Amino acid sequence: MDTVLIIDSCCDLPLKFVEENNFPGVYLTTTIGNNTYEDSFGGSISHEEFYSKMRAGEQPTTSQINTFKYMEIFTKFVMEKKPIFYIGFSSALSGSLNNAIVAKNAIIDKFPYADITIIDSKCASLGEGLLIYYAYNMLKSSHPKDEVEAWVEENKLKLNHWFTVSDLNYLKRGGRISSATAVVGTLLDIKPILHVDNEGRLMPVTKVKGRKKSLKMLADMLFERIVNPEESVIAISHGDCLEDALYLQKIILEKVKVKDVIINNVGPVIGSHSGPGTVALFFFGEKR
């Protein structure tokens, strides 16, 4: 496979999968307490330690990938005359992708032969990860880069993202809900159901009472919307609440047979905004 598939840390793929396939990565960062960490799939700070700090009351901040970091990694492979394919974190959630485009244009000015493809996934967490998973397998199976690019562009807005959170205060901090909604929702044990829309934004859709009902609602969204389940890989990401992710997997598999399920933690950057206890479900449907 000549094409180099570059990934960023917001795809939340399992560290083992990233390492086994030697993905070059670019990392957003999170600062918690007095320390700044690369969001390196659990490499620089474990997910358990990160969420433990959040539960103890520490409030992390996040930083996007700057143009220099993109210039550095793109230039390395351009100098090796290798085509580059980067599927990036939704531009509606981070300025990182715009920085990648700036870096690409600067490199092409200097090296006109550079072959750099950048795709705005309009996805987050393992939604982005699933796109990368499918694209990588196509490249590994010798599909031409332009064919893989066309497939990703055609299918990225079919990738459903459905998620719920345990603590409404993290959504309040991010401006997703009002302070009043967070207070009342917490008192009444109301759990929001959100998704990522066609612009790549996090949007509230509905709400239910109780944690188990919110997880069942995620499963219901899959039952209603999934296409060709027996041929599909689905994904579940979680904010250090593996038992809830496994419960969601269980109720899905009791009713629908799928090809495979990827389960992994939500990384520190996305987790900084969604909090411990987040559970998200990703699968392909006819549309989002």
Structure, explained:
By secondary structure, this protein is α/β, with parallel strands linked by helices. It has 11 helices and 13 strands. Strand 3 (29-32) and strand 4 form a beta hairpin. Helix 3 crosses helix 4 (96-110) and helix 5 (125-140) runs antiparallel to helix 6. The model has no long low-confidence stretch (mean pLDDT 93).
Outline of this structure?
The protein has 288 residues and is α/β, with parallel strands linked by helices. It contains 11 helices and 13 strands.
Total helices: the number is 11
Distance between the termini: 31 Å
CATH class group of the largest domain: Alpha Beta
% residues in beta strands: 15-25%
Number of domains: 2
Class by SSE composition: alpha/beta
Which spans have pLDDT < 50 for at least 5 consecutive residues? none
Count of extended strands: 13
What gross morphology would you assign?
globular
CATH architecture call of the largest domain: 3-Layer(aba) Sandwich
Per-chain topology:
Blueprint: E1 4-8, H1 15-20, E2 25-26, E3 29-32, E4 35-38, H2 47-55, E5 61-63, H3 67-79, E6 84-88, H4 96-110, E7 116-120, H5 125-140, H6 145-155, E8 159-164, H7 168-173, H8 179-187, E9 190-196, E10 202-209, H9 211-225, E11 233-238, H10 242-253, E12 260-265, H11 268-274, E13 279-284
Parallel strand pairs: 1-2, 1-6, 6-7, 11-12
Antiparallel strand pairs: 3-4, 3-5, 8-9, 8-13, 9-10, 11-13
Helix pairs in contact: 3-4, 5-6, 9-10
Notable characteristics:
single chain; 288 residues; alpha/beta; Rossmann fold; Hypothetical Protein Tm841, Chain: A,domain 3; 6-stranded mixed sheet; 4-stranded parallel sheet; 13 strands; 41% helix; globular
